[in-house]
């Protein structure tokens, strides 16, 4: 089983982005496999989106809902997705997370609109 397979099988992964001064900012997120990458979904104006825009350097690790890691962090590179690819990621999340995923995505769309969230693709070194 590859690193990507193991991370994609987790319910939550700890996505860590880095500030300009190098400080790590870890965030637990839902993740799903998207071809040769891991995909996550987040609020479009979040700090992690700004940090990824500046530098795609990230690490990802398996974690629980509170962000406590239970496996090693692996380096990766994150990139933001266009609206069409973000829709694809939402569909993948609905498949993986079933009812709670559908409800969360619906609530987010009602609250923020279609453009209020963005997909993030993370490629990891195997």
TrEMBL record:
Residues 6-97 form the Pyridoxamine 5'-phosphate oxidase N-terminal domain. GO terms for cellular component: cytosol. GO terms for molecular function: coenzyme F420 binding; oxidoreductase activity, acting on the CH-CH group of donors. The keyword Oxidoreductase applies. Keywords: Oxidoreductase. It holds the Pfam family PNPOx_N. Gene3D superfamilies: Electron Transport, Fmn-binding Protein, Chain A. InterPro entries: F420H2_bilvrd_red/Heme_oxyg (IPR052019), PPOX_F420-dep_Rv2061_put (IPR019965), Pyridox_Oxase_N (IPR011576), Split_barrel_FMN-bd (IPR012349). Coiled coil: none annotated. This is Pyridoxamine 5'-phosphate oxidase N-terminal domain-containing protein.
């Amino acid at each position: 089983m590859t690193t990507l397979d193991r991370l994609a099988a987790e319910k939550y992964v700890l996505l860590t982005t880095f500030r300009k001064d190098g400080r790590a900012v870890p965030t637990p997120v839902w993740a799903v496999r998207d071809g040769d990458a891991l995909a996550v979904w987040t609020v479009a104006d979040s700090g992690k989106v700004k940090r990824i825009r500046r530098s795609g350097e990230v690490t990802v690790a398996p974690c629980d809902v509170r962000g406590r890691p239970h496996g090693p962090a692996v380096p990766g590179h994150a990139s933001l997705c266009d609206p069409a690819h973000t829709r694809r990621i939402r569909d993948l999340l609905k498949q993986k997370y079933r009812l709670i995923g559908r409800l969360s995505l619906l609530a987010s769309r009602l609250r923020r609109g279609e453009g209020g969230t963005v997909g993030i693709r993370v490629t990891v070194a195997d």
